[in-house]
Design goal:
- The chain has two helices and 13 strands; from the N terminus they run ββββαβββββββββα.
- It has 186 residues and is mainly beta.
- It has one domain: Jelly Rolls.
- Its EC number is 5.1.3.13.
Amino acid sequence: MKVEQTKIEGLLILHPTVFGDDRGWFMESFNQQRFANALQELGLDVPEFVQDNHSLSQKGVLRGLHFQKEPYAQGKLVRVVQGKAWDVAVDMRKGSKTYGQWVGVELSAENKNMFWIPAGFAHGFIALEDNTQFLYKATNYYNKESEDAIVWNDPTLAIEWPLDGVDEVLVSDKDKIASPFFKKQI
């Protein structure tokens, strides 16, 4: 596994080692020991995962920007196992030097990359293909009373969503009424 650091401390892109031949391919989709070693080498906390989530989205479905407030804040290790998505994490950490900055990364069944998003970030993605399946490993259990969201197209954040080829952005009713960024902090 190759670990790529992003412009925001703690946000990592993980490139798994894939072994392929004329029969197909094989990879470890997750190895706790290798993941922990990679984080420790960077001086980062090692999480414990307690919940896995799996979603299916059609092209143009945008989910986010979601987060949970303390004491239920969640770190997420995310990947796409079918299709393609553009995934975004926004720094919401109080006092962070990168507060309000975001990182976006393409995740796909083809590239097999994963995105580590520690607690303290809002998270969202847009499906770039039909039948995109997205997997999340979470460090805390979902808690409805702690959930919150930032509107996906907040002008303060100016997230550069890749909308070329997307006929319509589809968001849930809940995400349509999400709050603007300036009122939020974890």
